[in-house]
Specification:
- There is one protein chain.
- The chain has 141 residues and is mainly alpha-helical.
- The chain has one domain.
- It contains six helices and no strands.
- Helix 1 runs antiparallel to helix 3 and helix 2 packs across helix 3.
């Protein structure tokens, strides 16, 4: 049975964890590999180099929106293709266990499941009430 008194806090913890994780991965691409180095790596995988910049922006934007709790359901689902791409183009051939050389795909699969669960749970506690703000942003007649 789900404890409805605490479910919103569970969604909050998951949302913050996912956001922080995406910030960490974007930071790795920016500060360790550098955006240009990441683009070069994407090219070595047969992907267009500009996709690295799109990925970095998606991770940063997604992390920000997740942490704030803005359109959490949609952001969670929108980030799934990034991780699926990492499985398909990088980690899938390395085997299941992430501890394998080059990292397998188990962690990324779990991360995808966590994003899907977040999309099912919704914003959780302490989320920006986006519907209220979006109404204020619309022009008045």
């Amino acid at each position: 049975m789900t404890d409805l008194k605490n479910a919103a806090y569970g969604a909050l913890v998951l949302r913050l964890s996912l956001g922080i994780l995406f910030f960490a991965h974007a930071g790795l691409k920016i500060f360790v590999f550098t955006p240009a180095g990441t683009a070069e790596y994407f090219t070595s995988l047969g992907l267009p180099g500009f996709l690295a910049y799109v990925t970095i922006l998606a991770e940063l934007g997604g992390a920000t929106l997740l942490i704030a709790g803005i359109i959490t359901r949609w952001v969670s689902l929108a980030l799934v293709p990034i991780l699926a791409g990492a499985i398909i183009f990088v980690h899938g051939s390395k085997g299941w266990l992430f501890s394998n050389e080059g990292g397998g795909w188990e962690f990324l699969a779990f991360w995808i499941v966590a994003l899907v669960v977040q999309s099912l749970l919704g914003d959780g506690a302490y989320a920006v009430p986006w519907k209220e703000y979006s109404k204020r942003l619309q022009p008045t007649r």
